[in-house]
Design a protein that fits this description.
Strand order of the largest sheet: 8-5-4-3-2-1-16
Shape: globular
CATH topology: Metallo-beta-lactamase, Chain A
CATH class: Alpha Beta
Structural class: alpha/beta
CATH architecture: 4-Layer Sandwich
Length: about 280
């Protein structure tokens, strides 16, 4: 579905959202620096990101989730900790459709304190992308509905000056050509008059992401946000402005790259609305 047209969704069943991969894990699940979230509704199964790979394989087995049942995969951006499990997913579900931005395959680096780290998708992911048929692979350059109630943002406008990418990202090892992670995309879910927002790392900024999704869904209000918020290096001003915006939310689930200090700050300011994300958590929306 390539337009923003959608049917009345008030009578449709709720969404089941399962965190499959996160930096924290329940019970005998594996924790991993990465993120993967499963969305199930109306007989459809959509995977948002794939973690680094190992945790997804293990955790899906432990949770009795058959990746072969997937209809769709969405990649939030081209970093290894969100794309590393793609080859395995496509082996299990070779006919599923894939949505991501064209820049997802670029070489990328984190350069901090004279230390350089490659952070682009692994070669197995790039090969898997290259092997997809034209009909399976959808490059997302603008907002798009992939289901009557599920949308993908495409690139998110960076309006708030206090929000940055959250890290020292570059396209070169010398740290000269800045990478603004313009391929960062998010998902929204529609239930009645409310929106739920799913973020990979929110490199475009959490507030930018929420407000953009509301702007392309006039009359609907974001009440839930789940995912990585990338506030690990956030300034005091950014944290304060983020909390101010999140006051309108009913459920806030920080995962992955949000950071311990930011998690604690969100919990202190927003109370029981904040639930620390963990692999194995299930939400019904």
């Amino acid at each position: 579905m390539s337009s923003l047209d959608r049917k009345d969704c008030g009578v449709l069943e709720r969404f089941k959202v399962t965190i499959l991969v996160d930096n924290i894990a329940k019970g005998n699940l594996i924790k991993e620096h990465g993120l993967s979230i499963l969305i199930e509704s109306d007989g459809k199964s959509i995977l948002f990101d794939t973690g680094q790979g190992n945790a997804l394989k293990h955790n899906s087995r432990v949770l009795d989730i058959d990746l072969g049942d997937l209809n769709t995969v969405v990649l939030s951006h081209g970093h290894y900790d969100h794309t590393g499990g793609l080859a395995h997913v496509l082996e299990r579900a070779p006919n599923c459709e894939l949505y991501c931005h064209p820049a997802v395959k670029k070489m990328r680096y984190s350069v901090r304190n004279n230390k350089v780290k490659e952070i682009q998708p692994p070669k197995s992911t790039v090969k898997a992308l290259d092997n997809l048929s034209t009909g399976q692979l959808h490059w997302i350059k603008e907002p798009m509905m992939i289901d009557d109630r599920i949308g993908v943002t495409g690139p998110i406008p960076r309006k708030e000056a206090y929000e940055d990418t959250g890290g020292s990202f570059f396209f070169d090892t010398q740290g000269i050509e800045a990478d603004l992670v313009e391929d960062d995309i998010a998902i929204w879910l529609i239930r009645d008059s409310e929106l739920s927002v799913l973020t990979g790392c929110a490199h475009a900024g959490l507030v930018n992401t929420i407000e953009y999704i509301e702007s392309i869904n006039p009359g609907l209000t974001a009440r839930t946000v789940i995912g990585g918020f990338h506030l690990v290096n956030a300034s005091k001003e950014r944290l304060q402005n983020t909390v101010k915006r999140l006051q309108k939310m009913d459920l806030i689930v920080p995962c992955h790259c949000t950071g311990k200090k930011a998690n604690a700050y969100l919990k202190r300011c927003l109370g029981k609305r904040v639930r620390q994300g963990e692999a194995g958590m299930v939400f019904f929306i």
